Amino acid sequence: MSQMQLVYHGELRCEASHFSGAKLITDAPPDNHGKGETFSPTDLLCVSLASCMVTIMGIEARKLEIPFNSVSAEIKKFMLANPRRVGKIRIELRMPENLKDHPHRQILEQAGLNCPVALSIHPNIEKDIEFLYV
């Protein structure tokens, strides 16, 4: 179990603290009455998915003794109205080219697609995930 705290600072800004001492700030986005000076809560949802996928893939790569470096992700969030919510998360995972034909490629991809955050996101949110080997 992780323990975290959150404090509302007004002006639609929150500060979250992790037990490690790490902190992060969220703002409401400009299209929802906020300043948009940092991540919104829904941005964090999308980034959490990409981060979880890459982390779980890294764990699997370590188990399989596969070098897993230079991985990055481009993340896009698509909002819906009535009710306002995330409708789609688009993630392009840029993977090292040397993994394109690796015999364990499918194992790595499935590990990412089945990470804890992916399995926790409501099924009404479309997850559009693409693995690009560059």
Task: Describe this structure as you would to a colleague.
There is one protein chain. This protein is globular. A three-stranded antiparallel sheet has the order 1-2-3, with no helix packed on it. The chain has three helices and six strands, in the order βββαββααβ. It has 134 residues and is an alpha+beta fold. β2 and β3 form a beta hairpin. α1 (41-63) runs antiparallel to α2 (105-113). It has two domains: 1-39; 40-133, GMP Synthetase, Chain A, domain 3, CATH 3.30.300.
Q: Which tags fit this structure?
A:
single chain; 134 residues; GMP Synthetase, Chain A, domain 3; 2 domains; three-stranded antiparallel β-sheet; 3 helices; globular
Give a brief description.
The protein is α+β, with helices and mostly antiparallel strands and 134 residues long. It is built from three helices and six strands.
Radius of gyration: 17 Å
* β-strand amount: 25-35%
SS elements, strand count: 6
Structural class by helix and strand composition: alpha+beta
Strand order in the largest sheet: 1-2-3
Residues in helices, as a percent range: 25-40%
Low-confidence stretches: none
Give the CATH class of the largest domain. Alpha Beta
Major sheet summary line:
3 strands, antiparallel
The figure for the number of domains is 2
Determine the N-to-C terminus distance: 37 Å
Number of helices: 3
Fill in the CATH topology of the largest domain. GMP Synthetase, Chain A, domain 3
Give the overall shape: globular
Q: Do you know the CATH architecture of the largest domain?
A: 2-Layer Sandwich
H/E series, N to C?
EEEHEEHHE
- CATH level-four homologous superfamily name of the largest domain: K homology (KH) domain
Average residue-wise pLDDT: 97
